[in-house]
Amino acid sequence: MNILSIDIGGTKFQVAVVTKDGEIVRSQKVPTPKSYDGEELFAVLCSAIAEVSSKESYDVVGVGCGGPMSPMGEFVSPLNIPGWRNFPLRSRLESIAGLPVFIDNDAKAITLAEAFFGGGKGKRNFMAMVVSTGVGAGLYCDGRLIDGESGNAGHLGHVIVEPSGHLCACGSLGCLEAEISGLSTQKILGITADLAPKSWIIRSGDLLARAVASAAALLDFECVFVGGSVALGYGDLFFEEANRALKRYAKLEFSEKVEILPTTLGPDFASLSGAAVALYRKGINSLT
C-alpha cells in the first residue's frame, strides 16, 4: 500500500508518496505562500500533489496540518496560515484525489510517525513535540493516540509558561509557543532562530521543560521526542538544558524519570507523519 503523505506547515508544504513500511518513494517541498487567499494556498498545494503523483500511484491520503481544526480535519484554521480559516481541507482533498483522506494535527501526526517508524515503536506511553514555526505536541497513552473532545488534544504550545509573557497568536499571554517558537523568536529578538544566542537557547530549553514537567505529572509517560527545525537547529545545548531543567521541575517519582529526546525520524519526519495518520486511522496498530 502506498500513501500520499502531506504535511502542511506555516513555512512549507511537503508532499510525498510513502510505503506502509515508511519508505519515501518520491517527495516534493514548496514554501507556504504568504497569502490571505485560501484558494491560492490550495492551488499551490494541488500543484505539489500533481508533481508527486504524476509518477507514483497511491491508495489513501494522510495529512498532518497545523491546528486548531474540527474533528477529522473537516475544517482547518492553522494559526500560522491566516489564509485558511475554517477551510474545508478534507473534502477538497478528497474531491481531487478520489480516495479516502485522513487529517490530523501536525504534532499528533508526528507522534504517530514516532509510533510507527521511530523511537516510539513498541512504546505504550510517550509524547512527541514539534518546535518549529509553531509549537505543538501529541499524546500517545496506553498504546493509542489521545484525540480529545474535538480532536485537538496535545496543544502543549498553548500551556502558559510565563504568566506575564508575550502575546500569543491564540490571544493569551505567555504560551510556550509565544515564547520559544521560530516565529516568536523572530518577533522578540528581531533575528531568525538559527542566529539565536546561547542565552536564548538555554531559556527556550528551560521553558520547554516547564511545559513537559506539567504534562508528565498529568499523563505519566515514559519520554518525549522533540522535532522541528528550531529544536533540532539548536542542537545539543537545547536538549541538555531542557533535561537539566526537567530534573528541577519534575519531582514526582514517576515523572522524574522522563527524558526529552531529539526525534529519531531524521530529516524526513514531515513526509512520514501524514503516512502514519493514514495507517492509524485505517486501524493498523503500531504495537503489532
Give the CA-based shape: globular
**Alpha plus pi helix count:** 9
Helicity, in percent? Answer: 25-40%
Mean pLDDT: 95
Spatial gap, N to C terminus = 17 Å
Supply the CATH architecture of the largest domain.
2-Layer Sandwich
Structural account:
The model has no long low-confidence stretch (mean pLDDT 95). The protein has 288 residues and is an alpha/beta fold. Helix 3 (106-117) crosses helix 9 (269-281) and helix 6 (198-219) packs across helix 8. The protein folds into two domains: 2-105 and 270-281, 2-Layer Sandwich (Nucleotidyltransferase, domain 5), CATH 3.30.420; 119-264, 2-Layer Sandwich (Nucleotidyltransferase, domain 5). Helices cover 36% and strands 20% of the residues. The strands form two sheets. A five-stranded mixed beta sheet has the order 3-2-1-4-5. A five-stranded mixed beta sheet has the order 8-7-6-9-10, sandwiched between helices. Strand 1 (2-8) and strand 2 form a beta hairpin. The two termini are 17 Å apart. The protein contains nine helices and ten strands.
Write the layout of secondary structure elements.
Layout: E1 2-8, E2 12-19, E3 24-31, H1 38-53, E4 60-65, H2 89-97, E5 101-105, H3 106-117, E6 126-131, E7 135-141, E8 144-145, H4 176-180, H5 182-189, H6 198-219, E9 223-227, H7 229-234, H8 236-249, E10 259-262, H9 269-281
Parallel strand pairs: 1-4, 4-5, 6-9, 9-10
Antiparallel strand pairs: 1-2, 2-3, 6-7, 7-8
Keywords: Kinase, Transferase
Family: Belongs to the ROK (NagC/XylR) family.
Protein name: Glucokinase
